[in-house]
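FORM 7B - TANDEM STRUCTURE REPORT

SECTION 1: FIRST PROTEIN
SEQUENCE AND TOKENS:
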Amino acid sequence: MSSSVSTRRHDLDALRGFAMLLGIVLHAAMSFIPGMGVIWGVQDSQSSGLYAMLLASIHGWRMPLFFLVSGFFTAMLWKKRGLRALLVHRFKRIFLPMVLAMLTIIPVMWVASSYVRSQPASESAELVTDNADVEEPAEQRGAVDIDVSAAVVMGDLDSLSAYLQNGGNVDAKNAQGAAPLHVACLFGRAEVAEILLDAGASLELKNNEGATPEQLLSLDWATTAYIAKLVQTPVDQEDLFAGRKRIAQAIEDQTGRSVSIAVASVGREDVLGGLTALFFYVPVFHHLWFLWFLCWYVCGFVLIVKLLQTLRVPAVSNRWLTSWLRYVWLIPLAAVPQYFMASSQYAYGPDTSVGLLPLPAVLAYYAIFFGYGAIYFGANDQAVAVGKGYWWKLAAAILILFPFGLSLQGPEQTSGRILFAVMQVSYTWVMSFGMLGLFNRFFRSPRFWVRYLSDSSYWLYLAHIPLVILLQFFVRDWSLPSLLKFGFVCSATTGLLLVSYQIGVRNTWLGALLNGRRYPGREESKPTAEPTKQVPTPAIQEST
């Protein structure tokens, strides 16, 4: 048996934990992105487009690298214990925690989100964004500061009227490029739409997808229901179409032209569309989706191993796995599913699939990284040749590939979409290999605090969403720089959850479920010179 099977990869443990903890950073940034309140539930009074760039820069490589590392550890576990033990291990470490979290953490998240959505913004809060127009009229500078899209979605007529009466922009767009009238037409908010039309809302304004408010009146029920679920907004089908009909009549009265709307139906196409939305788009797993994907990949891994053993397929040459030749096939291969994702104007990186059935493009995309990690284990790359020159890889990814790819967002022509996909996955692969090299350079030796954070990261990621939402709401109206509030949300979330991990998780049955059986006294001791004298279980004890 090769040494790669019996030697613990401390660098990959640390990298896996780091990727988990970055999830807290990403979700903490959501409330500080202009216009994200309608989706996320909390819109901070101090917002900046820089947080959207931060989110995109991390999202572009974090989960792909996580699945790469997971594929590596999956192959390691198979080689050490066999396929049967692999399935048992993953059932305990992945499937059971996912089910428990869905029964506990997800409901708490719903309660937290519902609570913050029900709370009005403080009238004394001053909404500041880096997109503010310094030349805007004095009467608009005195406008009541509200999340206009959220007010439309919730039907908050009082707040919306006050906003408009004090000079608020009736055509102000959110991060998705939707004006208030777009939102009202989408969700059939007839009374809101009538107020907006009376205030002179434009019927010709287009959102990021190129649709006018009037065109959204004809959007089918299945798509509308998916969007409503995404922003956690209850929508009744009958009320929706009744509201749209009323809006269409108001537009006809104002313009004199006929307006077409979608009608409720129970035809075959509507049923199929409803089933598609139900299985693929209705949020089931939320931030736990990656665990569901891992279940699919592990099952696929077992089937592929059995098939390859039967066919006796030769191993892939290391030259195609660790040398520069890997880019020749990895970049175009990952660019194919990436081409079908990130289609909206401001999207970057892979999409997220939170439904019961994984979206095909998303499943295929992450499968490439998981599969590479699995076959990379067989290369026995002890020197981590793939991470050689990590400093220039990271520099090239951050300073060249990411900005260039970001500048290509929202292409309409096929050639532009191909280039956009290639640049995105190039950033992902180069950044991933750079991070492998960086962590091998600084974390290949065991350190107690690194191991502690790595072990705790699984719990921190599972439990962080409700706490992040409540803390974002707590600081929402503070008149402090956004960076200070963002740092507070990140550090307070991490600190509180670390305390909960130490007290209620680490040495309990839950800690054993997440990270395996603990050996008091051994994990804090200094490592021995011989790798074979290390505790056997931690050699493959990686949660996901």
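SECTION 2: SECOND PROTEIN
SEQUENCE AND TOKENS:
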Amino acid sequence: MIERGRGNDPRAIALRRQSASRLRDAREKLTSSGSGHRAFDVELLDEFARARQISAPAALALAMVISIISVFWAPFPYVLLWFTLVASGALLSYGFAGNYLKLPDQMPPIMLWQQKFAAAEAIQGAGWALIVVLLSNASDPVATVFVIMVLLLAAAMNTMMSATVPAAVYAGLVPITLGITWYMFATNQSATMPLTILAAITLICLIVLAKRLYSNSVAAMLLRKEKDLLIAELEQAKASSDEARLRAEEASLAKSRFLATMSHELRTPLNAILGFSEVMKGELFGPHSVPSYKNYSVDIHNSGEHLLMLINEILDLSRVEAGRYELKEESVSLPGVVEDCTHLLSLRAKKREIRMVEQVEDGLPRIWADERAMRQVTLNLLTNAIKFTPQGGTITIKVGWTGTGGQYVSIRDTGPGIPPEEIPIVLSSFGRGTMAQKNADEGSGLGLPIVKGLVEMHGGTFTLKSEVRVGTEVIFILPPQRVMDTLPQMVDAEDETPGAPDQPLPESPAGLSKIENVRERMGLRRRPAA
């Protein structure tokens, strides 16, 4: 971990702390319903302040237009005074909003700022309501309608802009409502009574709308916090999983590197044990005075060979996992490798009265692969098949083309089979199924992982199929890129016959029907002729 820079990285620690802080804040905000929680109230005040800053110029422009129209019914000095009061309220609200937004990121005094904003809205609402005093002496019915429209327009504007702070909404609507009520009794015009009632109903609708807007704002914040919480949890989970994965990879790589570099240290004492025990077993310097010593030396030699085989398997698997296994690729005949391995293990199969059947397709070209690796893969698979096949059973070995132009080797036995849930176990390092544990010669559980690793290093695939009380079939497939195309035979120019068609290679009829049955069962077919 130190070598690869996986130690305690200050930047990674800081990122984890920031992620945890965001997660904690999101959870804290999510547990609130929006009312009375400082974090939510701060966001509501932020939205109010930004809305007030944006709406202040529009409010001033509207007040100026209304002042110009009011000159038709009121003296100019009174109109100017009214405009000054309305503008003062708008500028006061604008100033409070600007001061609030300039505050540092720390929590501001919520109640104080709510009171300030409510007071500013009350002053601004009172300024708009004073238009009833400005135009109270106007006898023109149009002026009455104009006053009602101005008050409703001001109420609607204040409601929309102040919805995120309910206290500010009520503070702005109270003066306007009082103004409409006073104007209704002051004018005492029966013709304007329906319009006044309609204005009162409109104010009630605006209050309901303000509550609805406030609820929608809180709901939007809740959704946003839920999203932030989900993102924070995903980031924290990803960081934790990445850290755990890196630690596991580093631990596995350290183990593999350690074992890959311990080849000499582990094999040197074993060579001495095997050498001297073989000398003692053969009695090269004279017979033993006690016959039991010879039996002990045989046991020591056998145990040393077993330990050496186990160490070799561990080192092979470690080199594959550590990426230190170097393929020495050359032209290899896959049927030849399978035939040699079958001949090598035929004596062991005969001792257990196991019949080995070979089915090899004709005309298979050579492949570009590591011959030692191919032999090790075939020997491991055949050894497992012989080990778990009962006496009198059959092992079928098939070599042929795949449907995509590659080559495959299939080894099927008539053993007890492997339950489907145990297949991932037997493919893992040191993994053994229940049948292997019952077998006296159970092995180390590294054969199949080594086979899988070597096949994948060649770009191939390894498949294990098994059915309980029927048997097991293992298949490894080499890709078409590994198959070497055969070159045509070179002939002299005078022996070449122009226009003679190419003659197809004859197929051997022997065993053809059996191979076709194999193709049908395994979904494999012969490579099409070029």
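SECTION 3: OBSERVATIONS ON SECOND PROTEIN
Confidence is low (pLDDT under 50) at residues 1-7, 32-37, 486-530.
Residues 330-485+508-522 form a domain with the Heat Shock Protein 90 fold (CATH 3.30.565.10).

SECTION 4: SIGNATURE
Preparer initials: ____
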